[in-house]
Amino acid sequence: HADKKDPEKKTKNKGKSKEVFGYPLSIFFIVVNEFCERFSYYGMRAVLVLYFKYFLLWDDDLATSIYHTFVALCYLTPILGAIVADSWLGKFKTIIYLSIVYAIGQVAMAVSAIHDITDTDRDGKPDNMTFHVALSMVGLLLIALGTGGIKPCVAAFGGDQFSDSQDKQRRTFFSVFYLCINGGSLLSTIITPIIRAQECGIHSKQSCYSLAFGVPAALMVVALLVFIVGSGMYYKAEPQGNIMLDVCKCIWFAIRNRYRHRSKQYPKRTHWMDWAEEKYDKLLIAQIKMVLKVLFLYIPLPMFWTLFDQKGSRWTLQATTMDGDFGALVIQPDQMQTVNPILILTLVPIMDSLVYPLIKKCGLNFTPLKRMTVGMFMASIAFVCAALVQIEIDKTLPVFPSAAQSQLKLLNMGNNPITVQLPGNETTELPGTMASLDYFTFESEEIMVSIGTPAVTKLVSLAMGKRQTLLIPSDLVEEWLMTDDLTSKPDEGKNAVRFVNGMNMMVNVTTPSVNFGLTEPFYYSNYSLIKMFAQIVRKSCWLGHTFTTTELCFFIYSFQCLKSITVVQDIKPNTASMALQIPQYFFITLGEVMFSVTGLEFSYSQAPSNMKAVLQAGWLFTVAVGNFIVLIVAELAKLPKQWTEYVLFASLLVAVCFIFSGMAYFYTYIDPTEIEAQFKKKDDEDDDDDDQKSKPQKAEMEMVKRGSVDSDD
């Protein structure tokens, strides 16, 4: 900045910042602000897709689509924020104003997750879902505008606080700054899922999404207040124009000028950007050419982000169908995302200090573009791993009936064993007070069922596309009851539990979290969702039973404690361990280190220093496009099996790898500083030539002037 070369002006703008250990005191406020803001953003984002699925009750595809639309907006708005800061408000005011917008958005999300606001019948479910959807969408829009708008400003504003003689301190600041980003991300993805897993509410207890969003909202308010407290200490550079606008204007002029001179009578120029020479400086045009070479390489890059950002959507949804019990530790599905920042902090130093130097010692020319290609390939391997994990999960999932099928389970409510004959099946021996091991599948709406000896035969009506249980009474001439069973796994890792009363008297069943109420003789209760451990109380009889993500039916047939209940497991619990996801997280993080870190480093090395903002905008734009690709595939592909979608994404990225490697093969590395120096040298020579030409003219004019003076005398 020009201000930094003017000591008086710099002192005037910098405020009253003191130095601590050689660092401006103002940067400590900026670092704390960044940590709180990143905690706020990643904490909210960690539980977002589960909020869509379980609170707003959206299906997986819609939840994935809206999630990636939000992420895409978060990476589009930085371009707007940079332009506003550099051309109008300045970085300080932009950060303040958009942080207020950001905080309002976070508060809106927290309020939208309070189910009691519209739960008029107090059943634990919102009665006006439109209100919650509308408020959450407004909140997400404000958050996208806020987080994206301040993203390009905070780091640059922190860098502005250092003088030209503090290069070492500035580098240390940026290291600490990015450490705060990863620290905030790591802590928030551990803490907010734990909060979400709690139950809270005024009239009824439900998963605590309101507090899971409320804590990030509070952190964003803290971030804003901390930043404001340091206001008097900041050096606030005046807006000096945005280079992106200049670049866009120059490119647009070149395109228009080329179109005007499209006739063959005009001679061709070496590069289409040369058509801007009539209006713009040749050095600027040369700089834009260098940037365009890099931006051309960006074209295939969105496909990497298409896969990478599914950590927070598809992979989190995948984890909901897995077992997070690691013995002493129980992991929530949305907590698996913490593996990524942990691996980032581990792999970056390992790759930089061990792997890359080792490859170099082996004599291999592992260029930045080759690293990026390998990084993309690692991401495709991660999705192959995800597909294999999904196949293992599918093996544990029950086979539910199609729309043209029905399924039936048998429960013998008597004490004596019976024989049951079902159409198309062998005779089944059913012990007393026991149920059949699995469901029988039929493709007709009515079947003849024969039970006992002598056989009692009845016509049983089945519901197509449903699962049912036939309650067989001890006296076969009495009514045969049919219960409707679940046709999907219970949500949020809970267990669907009901009771069947096999006695000739009323039974009252209660648990610490659910009161099942009175169950009539030879009848059944409704399903209730209970967490991992339930303590069931029947009069003076207690039964402890541990289970997870399953459907259970408790058949009560006497008052002999601990011997009077048959546990029937209609849907088996999640058995695929979340540990199976660790390989896919490893490969996607390895891909991120090789692709993202190397990509930014390469981009900055191949473009002029004053064009870094343009490259950052282009890089963020590839992230946004990648997220839009996810929602397009999610809405249009509609593949029957989730593992096939993972394979599709992996295949697309492999194809893009080959395209990118071809582009990289023909790319020529340049030194922007050297090219700029050549142009500046040429400009200086042109100026010298102009001076040499002007000297004879000046001497001649001087002679004429002297002659005129002599004649006057």
TrEMBL record:
Bias type Basic and acidic residues, positions: 692-713
CDD domains: MFS_SLC15A1
Gene Ontology biological process: oligopeptide transport; protein transport
Main location per the UniProt record: membrane
Pfam families: PTR2
Positions of transmembrane segments: 20-42, 62-83, 95-114, 134-154, 175-195, 215-235, 290-308, 342-359, 371-391, 582-602, 614-634, 646-670
Entry keywords, A to Z: Membrane, Peptide transport, Protein transport, Symport, Transmembrane, Transmembrane helix, Transport
Source superkingdom: Eukaryota
Keyword Transport applies: yes
Molecular functions (GO terms): symporter activity
Topology with respect to the bilayer: Multi-pass membrane protein
Region feature (Disordered): 680-713
Record's subcellular location: Membrane
GO cellular component: membrane
Family named by the database record: Belongs to the major facilitator superfamily. Proton-dependent oligopeptide transporter (POT/PTR) (TC 2.A.17) family.
PANTHER family, per database record: OLIGOPEPTIDE TRANSPORTER-RELATED
Protein name from the UniProt record: Solute carrier family 15 member 1-like
Organism: Stegastes partitus (bicolor damselfish)
Encoding gene (name): SLC15A1
